[in-house]
Amino acid sequence: MTTAVPVAWLVARSAGLVAFGLLTLSVWLGLAMSTRLLKPKRQKTLLSLHRTLAWTGLSMIALHAGALLLDPVMHFGVLSVLVPGAAAWRPGSVALGIVAAWLSLALAASFNARRWIGQKGWRRLHYASFAAFWLSLGHALLVGTDLRGLGGPVTAVLAAGPVLCLTFYRLLVPRTAPARPIALPAPAA
User: Fold this and answer.
1) How far, in Å, CA of 89 to CA of 84, rounded?
2) Residue 83 near residue 98 (C-beta atoms within 8 A)
3) Residue 74 in contact with residue 9, Cβ under 8 Å?
4) Where on the phi/psi map is residue 90: left (φ > 0), alpha (ψ -120 to 50), or beta?
5) How far is it, in rounded angstroms, from Cα 62 to Cα 12?
6) At residue 181, does pLDDT exceed 70?
7) How far apart are CA 111 and CA 182, in angstroms?
8) Predicted confidence (pLDDT) per residue in 56-82, tens digit
9) Other Cβ atoms within 10 Å of 182 Cβ, number
10) How far apart are CA 52 and CA 42, in angstroms?
11) What is the number of alpha carbons within 13 Å of residue 122 lying toward its C-beta?
């Protein structure tokens, strides 16, 4: 007797974990750049990496959602993966991830809209990255089957520790010079 391997479920779990990891790295890097802990000479390169992490994380979110749509056990529909609260299974916990995904998409898209919304608006919008991070961490801990037991608290500390440290550093350590906008490369045609 052979048991079918739940490929869609395995892909959904893997893509979700990778998405969380990539977006967490993007938040860390964004905070490290805003605190000026990293060399200003490398800002363009770091910003490019920050954007790449964000968009790659979003592609993993899309793979996560797409695999859930194909999973024959969970029975997620299109609305279940796009609309907060529409999922039949753990609607509140799933909604955390959906809202985090939409916020992450808005933040990533803001890189291309920065010249229209201005530097000040862009920075204000980026405060939503805190909400996206905490919502995605909550989603991962509440519905992430790979974070049961010791894995959840360890992941939470490893992911949130740098976010908290960098946030407190940003708030408590005075800046020596005003932040200058980083010139973004033109979007690819």
Assistant:
1) 12
2) yes
3) yes
4) left
5) 10
6) no
7) 11
8) 999 999 999 999 999 988 889 999 999
9) 15
10) 15
11) 18
